[in-house]
Write a structure and sequence with these properties.
The protein has three domains: about 160 residues, Flavodoxin domain (Rossmann fold), CATH 3.40.50; about 140 residues, Rossmann fold (3-Layer(aba) Sandwich); about 45 residues, no CATH class. The chain is globular, with a radius of gyration of 25 Å. The mean pLDDT is about 95. It is an alpha/beta fold and about 450 residues long. Helix 7 links the parallel strand 4 and strand 5. About 45% of the residues lie in helices and about 15% in strands. The chain contains 19 helices and ten strands. The structure holds flavin mononucleotide.
């Protein structure tokens, strides 16, 4: 059998951890042919040179199975791989993928690997592929005999699925895109005073020819003072993240002096009080250009850079049909310690309704910013920081030295393993008591939980 291996690591086959997993399957099953295609690393030439792109398409056409292999980058695939996926649709090559058996392997530290896997699953369904399954490996799984055996079994099941023409289920409906032309109305409301708050809109489009551009421009009109608007194509970005991890030592990107991204992020994004990110939906995520921004912002590694900011979204496209995107956007806000204001899309209602939502977004953002309102985080942010904390404290400390220093100096390790004084006192008092049967029978745990709340509710000073 012939397998097309679509490598989504910017490091290429030679240096990619993910590809070691494929090399292992190859070692165990040398009877098959494996064609390694370094998609992410060579995206520039693949996009520019039609022949190179067509060669890849030809290899896929001739293959019995397609394996998507990638490192998780900021909850998804890297921007380069995302661009390749966009090219498949832009160049109408979906038919080549139709009915091909496929499996998906990611390697990562399990930080939002499920959203990356969901993304690729939806893409496979959109392409009409026979999706056999996914394998969300931890980067180091191959080094452990039991985990290695699990991976081999997965590979063999995939091979068997093709041999036996196993039926496969589809999980994602095609998104329905509404035909709708947003026409902004005359602005006749009282303009919003920014009250000294800095507002920055970072947008995919700033023209008046698309719904997104028009929504963004209408939003700008809501304010009586100047606010900043940046088109993401105007940011000086020389290249995508290449996964070198030089930033791990001191939070400095290797592109720092070569392009304007570090300056953009540090001096514009990080200095704003209110951020509005505006994008279209392209396939099952935002555009690859937006992904490029998220990836390049990784030079700050696992430290939050948007603490205390108000964040809103203006989106054109079927966001409500892509819950996976919402989850990533919300998680990003939460682990950055910022606050979600609202997301306005062009999916529902008429133009005047959208006008009112945009106005409200501006009003709410300023109100929240002035009152320093930050919602508590949910599981998305809580789990994110705990998983970062464990990894940076442990196995990845030597890689992310700058994170480790930040975590030490900013109290991230204070709650680790457990430095919660209130919890310590409670455990010291209650655990010995709860070992006594008589006490266990007598104690009403529900009432015990409420005791500290009573103090707050009954104390007029609180
Ligand atoms: C820019 C960047 C972003 C990353 N984002 C994530 C992430 O969101 N979740 C995660 O679990 N791992 C993340 N990682 C870790 C990689 O997924 C992991 O190290 C992977 O095994 C690398 O595979 P490769 O050598 O094939 O590129 C990231 C690494 C880099 C360089």
């Amino acid at each position: 059998m012939k397998f097309a291996i679509l490598n989504g690591s910017p490091k290429g086959t030679a240096e990619s951890v993910s590809m070691q997993y494929i090399l292992y399957i190859k070692k165990k099953h040398p009877e098959h042919e494996y064609v390694f295609l370094d998609i992410a690393q060579r995206i520039k030439v693949i996009e520019k040179n039609g022949e190179k792109f067509n060669d890849i398409i030809e290899t896929i056409k001739e293959s019995d199975g397609v394996i998507w292999v990638f490192p998780v980058y900021v909850m998804l695939v890297c921007s380069q791989y995302k661009r390749f996926i966009e090219l498949i649709f832009e160049r109408n090559k979906e038919h080549v993928f139709k009915d091909k058996y496929t499996a998906v392997l990611s390697t990562s530290i399990h930080f939002y690997d499920h959203t990356a896997q969901n993304y690729l699953h939806a893409i496979c369904d959109d392409l009409g592929m026979k999706y056999v399954g996914y394998f969300p490996a931890d980067s180091w799984d191959l080094l452990y005999p039991k985990r290695r055996a699990r991976w081999l079994l997965f590979g063999e099941q995939f091979i068997k699925a093709i041999e036996t023409k196993q039926p496969t289920t589809q999980h994602y409906q095609k998104a329905q895109i509404r035909e709708f032309n947003y026409e902004p109305g005359d602005f006749n409301q009282e303009k919003i005073d920014t009250q000294g708050k800095k507002i920055l809109i970072v947008s995919e489009d700033t023209s008046d020819s698309t719904n997104l551009g028009k929504m963004v421009n209408q939003f700008v009109k809501s304010f009586s003072n100047n606010i900043e608007l940046v088109n993401i194509y105007d940011i000086d970005i020389k290249g995508p993240c290449i996964g070198c991890i030089h930033c791990g030592y001191n939070h400095e990107c290797i592109y720092k002096d070569k392009d304007g991204f570090t300056d953009f992020w540090t001096n514009r994004v990080m200095k704003a009080d209110i951020l509005i990110f505006a994008s279209i939906i392209k396939d099952r995520y935002l555009s690859s250009r937006w992904k490029l921004i998220y990836d390049r912002a990784f030079f700050n590694n696992h430290t939050p850079t948007l603490i205390g900011k108000q964040l809103g979204y203006i989106i054109s496209g079927p966001l409500s049909q892509n819950h996976n995107i919402k989850e990533m956007l919300m998680a990003h806000i939460e682990y950055q310690d910022s606050n979600f204001v609202d997301g306005v899309t062009d999916e529902f209602g008429d133009s005047s309704h959208i006008d009112s939502l945009l106005y409200n977004l501006g009003k709410q953002a300023v109100n929240f910013s002035v009152t320093d309102y930050i919602k508590p985080i949910s599981f998305l942010g809580e789990a994110a920081m705990k998983s970062f904390r464990d990894d940076v404290y442990g196995r990845d400390r030597f890689v992310f030295l700058a994170d480790h220093e930040y975590y030490e100096s900013h109290g991230v390790y204070d709650t680790f393993p457990q430095n919660d004084e209130r919890a310590k006192k409670m455990n010291a008092k209650l655990i010995p008591l709860l070992k006594i049967d008589k006490v266990r029978k007598k104690i009403n745990m529900k009432q015990e939980f409420l005791k500290p709340f009573k103090k707050v509710l009954e104390d007029p000073r609180k």
